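Minutes, methods subgroup
Present: GH (chair), OT, SY

1. OT presented the first of two proteins processed in the latest run. Sequence and structure tokens recorded below as shown on screen.
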Amino acid sequence: MGEVFGLSRRLSTFVGVLAFGTAAALDGCSTGQSSTETGATVAPASGGEVTAAESISSAPAQPQMEYAIAIHGGAGGPSRDISPEERAKYGQALASALRTGRDMLAKGGSALDVVETVVRALEDEALFNAGKGAVFTHAGTHELDASIMDGRDLSTGAVGAVRTVKNPITLARAVMEHTRHVLLVGDGAEQFAKERKVDRVNNSYFSTKHRRQQWEEKKALERQRDPSSAAALNDRRFLMGTVGAVALDKNGHLAAATSTGGLTDKRWGRIGDAPIVGAGTYADNKTCAVSGTGIGEEFIRHGVARSIAAEIEHGAGSLDSAAKKLVHQRLKPDQGGVIAVSVRGEIALEYNTDGMLRAAADSAGRFEVFLWESPEQLQD
């Protein structure tokens, strides 16, 4: 049976804050886009002690969601002139992953299991720069990064520059659950993968025709070494691409997961924000879960994911205002975006690029998929 994405939307568009405090209307703009929204029908708890969910913000309390989930397939997004068929592929891939996560949460699944499962699905989809479909390094190979975090106790695991692990997010969870460490990289991570007997593949498994074309185009631009090619080298197609998921489950627990192939033509074992906890991934039951996408170096410099949680924890604002502040004031235009879910089930989908592949669902019936400003009107 068909599901029309966006029909459950109950709240209208919000006005974001662009970098350095300049206000701009978001709907229809080519940069500085925002899609931060909350929705609810479930009544908040009343009486007795004030819960963490009721005390994290000075803003009026939003009704408590039973569960909520947001996912992303990368900031920047595809070109707006893609064919209807290509557009539908992106929408359906996001919808399928979102539906999987939503259904798991509705059945009482844990947030941690949900974010791992959803990110695995996105890693297996060649449209996205993570797992199958990862970008090429300067050497013509693939190196993948991922991290996962459990908001119950701040447990976390991450891997960087892995070359044969089919689903890096699963290896990241193994680091969290079966070692005393947080981050394993390169040959050490590969050895750990062998010991844990996770699924492994030849490095060529990750290659796609589309990513090879991007890599060859980037190399050709570098060879030109003129002003026009210098500008083209900053094209977001070469600088961005990540997948991620954040979730709140029925037990009130939060989790976040992020996975990426990194930058096209990256060198020297470069690792971005995806496996850096506090930069591209963060989850804490006291506040929120966050997954970032964009120029990793900037997310690391500003500690974007942890900073959003800190804004809430210290009473500086709501999830909505915290996400806006980090994306539109700390980051510069066209540097990326975040997805986040609060302990109350509020959802933020904030970005300052032309678009961001993203989707969200909750226990109130919301089910939305976005490539740009408006929800996709696609059917099963």
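2. SY then presented the second protein from the same run.
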Amino acid sequence: MSERSVTLQWDLAEEFLRYTEQVRNAGAETIRAYRSDLGGFFSWLEEEDLTEESPDSELVRAFVAQRTREGVSARSVNRALSALNGFFRYLRRRGYVAVNPLDGVRPVREGRKLPSVLSPGEIDRLLDIHGDDFRSVRDRALFEMMYSTGCRVGEISTSTVGRLDLNRGRVHIMGKGSRERLAFLGKPARAALAAYLPLRRERLRRLGKETETALFINDRGGRLSPRGIAVILDARLQKAGIAKPCSPHTLRHSFATHLTTSGADIRVVQELLGHAGLSTTQIYTQVGIGRLREVYRQAHPHGSGGRAGSVVDRQNRSDNARAAERSGPGIRRGPRVPGGSGSTNGGADTDEN
């Protein structure tokens, strides 16, 4: 592809990205991913010396095949296809191209991988943080809030003090696509945050940064970044003796899985997670089924575990009790969702995009 045509494509790509951010309200992470995926496609066109100004579906399929041979995951390839589809749909609406070359191109089949989760017992170990110094109190409040609300790490990082309502036990969250929702705080999270806020105020006062609005701050008084949260989590997992691979998103997975295995309605879990579509939330029912299958295997007379039902039932009830205490009203009494009745069977039946 000539230098001129590459420049032209990038000019159009930046125009598309501005539209996606400003009109479609896409978040910063989405814009970064789209820019990376479009850049990968343009680079491939240039490397292959392909000069088509308006690629066709065969060219797109060749791009997919090349990425697959390079070992790129199906999920990443499909994300690139989504970016390209949005880009060429935009070009067609603006009259830059006559057809969308993504029409008829199917996504790559993805293996359904269940998310990694922590058990209620492992959650307890992670949150068993002792000490009254700033870092210990902050970290305890941070992870209590993450598990109690099921928020994304980016949502936690951008949370502000002004959006927190400890008296009502809730926090206003700005999620993907600038969609706002309420998240709820269990008693342990409320207590941990109540202990943290005075230390936060004192640290900011000493640093002369009283105007900082971020809820969770670093040692220098700045907003705690998603990367910073991941580093703190790694250290706390090591101290807790939890060896399984975990990321901040694992706490979100654990929140959702513990809700579904305790009987929460899937629509309620969707609302609490801030998912635009129900299909994304349904993966957690599969995690729950895996747990039920294991209980059956151990408890049923024809299962390989023999007649262990009473022991398993007691353990299951103990796990659920711990999760209920940590996750607040979402498990025992049913989460209060905007417009909901407070029952786990009465969640708002919405699927907004």
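Chair's summary of item 2: Strands lie at 164-165, 170-174, 180-184.
Next meeting: continue with the remaining queue.
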